[in-house]
Write a structure and sequence with these properties.
The protein is mainly alpha-helical. The chain has a domain of about 100 residues: Arc Repressor Mutant, subunit A, CATH 1.10.10. Helix content is about 40%, strand content about 10%. The protein is built from four helices and two strands; from the N terminus they run H-H-H-E-E-H. The protein has a two-stranded antiparallel ribbon.
Length: about 160
């Protein structure tokens, strides 16, 4: 039984190890470190990658030297080859979608190219004196209030 939903556009780290294990031979940590395609794969997580292969449907045999595990061997090669073939199709489709996206993006960028219009700056004359501004003078009117016209009356309370 194969489980998992893989829609990534590139091969996962544990799938790289699975691809190496498809030979059917024993694979150990030292042999994986020597392979150039394993560059960038954290091999300290090898047991986690083997677990991932088992979850996906792989049958992995642990080869032991005494009590210590010296390597791993994949036993159901045909089923896992079918799994990787399906994943290869996903990679191809994802690459095709990515190239389509880039083409559309390039077309949009080409359509958005706008001509730059040069705007002429207005000529500005230098102002050295206040007369150069040619401003009209503003006159403020002063309003005088007369205090004599005001009458003050006193209001008192009367007891009723």
């Amino acid at each position: 039984m194969m489980r998992g939903r893989n829609t990534q556009s590139k091969m996962l780290q544990w799938e790289k190890i699975l691809k190496v294990m498809l030979t059917g031979k024993e694979v150990n940590k030292e042999s994986l470190e020597a392979m150039p395609e394993m560059k960038g794969v954290p091999l300290y997580r090898l047991s986690t990658f083997i677990w991932r292969i088992k979850i996906t449907g792989g049958v992995v045999k642990a080869v032991k030297t005494g009590r210590k595990i010296s390597g791993y061997q994949l036993t159901n090669i045909d089923e896992m080859q079918k799994y990787l073939d399906r994943r290869e199709k996903v990679f191809v489709e994802a690459a095709k979608k990515e190239s389509d996206k880039q083409q559309k993006k390039a077309q949009r960028a080409a359509a958005k190219t706008v001509k730059t219009v040069k705007v002429k700056k207005p000529k500005v004359s230098k102002v050295t004196k206040l007369k150069d501004l040619q401003a009209d003078p503003v006159v403020k009117e002063v309003v005088e209030t007369v205090a004599d016209e005001m009458q003050i009356t006193e209001v008192t309370e009367s007891g009723v």
